[in-house]
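User: Can you help me understand a structure? I only have the sequence.
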Amino acid sequence: LIVALGVVSLISIFNVEKKIINMRQKILDYHKIDFLVTYHPANLLDDLDLKKYAWEDFKLIRDKYINV
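Assistant: Let's start by predicting it. Here is the structure, written out as tokens:
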């Protein structure tokens, strides 16, 4: 599992210019490795309302990989 924090990571790896809000909560494939994008910690400090979305993303990770 790769967890990318922030849009810069998403653009760098997938070469797409999309907003995180449209890409989060999706497990993407990166060379047969699960890849998930969520908000960068700096974004969470700037906008406290985004924390609930980041928490949902990490709960998705927890639920998917709890028994691996």
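Now, to help you interpret it: Strands lie at 2-5, 28-30, 33-38. Residues 38 and 55 are 9 Å apart (CA to CA). Let me know which part you'd like to focus on.
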